[in-house]
Write a structure and sequence with these properties.
By secondary structure, this protein is mostly helical. It contains eight helices and no strands. The longest helix is centred in the first third of the chain and has 24 residues.
């Protein structure tokens, strides 16, 4: 277990969960990096068979590069960023359900996840401040819960994971709403 990566993940997740709105450009970069990294890690096993002859080092850093590219795109355009964060977080949640066995990977469920993500993204654009707070607290809270469970494997079960995630997201959103009342 790589404790340094987990600790860095916890620090970044805390900043995102509790200070996402105050640091929204940085938060967008972090959220997009995490989305790109997760999607890159999910897609890596599917594209690796087509990458024969390429140095394994480059294959292993591919998720990091996808995350970096997504991060650079994410800080460029705020409204598009909010819309795509809604879709991205919905897809990450969908793939987490698929990985846990709660959902089966199919075109129908994937299509439903895309539609739900578009709805989330559209609603998020119309209410920017609350959306940024909720999306950053969700992204930071889920990553924080995942890091905590990686650090303490004894509590690794779906129920505990869900409870920790809900607590982190609610506490992060509550703190951000309370501390950013005066900000636009």
């Amino acid at each position: 277990m790589d404790y340094v990566s987990i600790i860095i993940g916890i620090i970044i997740s805390i900043v995102l969960c509790f200070f996402g709105y105050r640091l929204k450009r940085i938060a967008f970069a972090i959220v997009w990096f995490v989305i790109g990294l997760d999607l890159g890690n999910f897609l890596l096993p599917h594209v690796t068979p087509y990458m024969q002859g390429i140095d394994p080092f480059f294959i292993n850093i591919l998720p990091f590069l996808v995350g970096l590219l997504m991060s650079l795109i994410g800080i460029s355009v705020e409204r598009v960023c909010i819309f795509l964060i809604g879709i991205g977080l919905t897809l990450i949640t969908y793939f987490n359900f698929v990985d846990s066995g709660a959902l089966e990977l199919s075109w129908l469920t994937f299509g439903i996840a895309i539609i739900v993500g578009c709805v989330v993204g559209t609603v998020a654009i119309s209410i920017m401040r609350p959306a940024i707070i909720l999306l950053t607290s969700y992204a930071g809270g889920t990553q924080l819960a995942s890091s905590i469970i990686s650090l303490i494997p004894a509590i690794s079960n779906p129920t505990t994971s869900l409870i920790i995630t809900i607590i982190m997201v609610v506490v992060g959103a509550f703190y951000q709403f309370r501390s950013t009342k005066h900000l636009k």
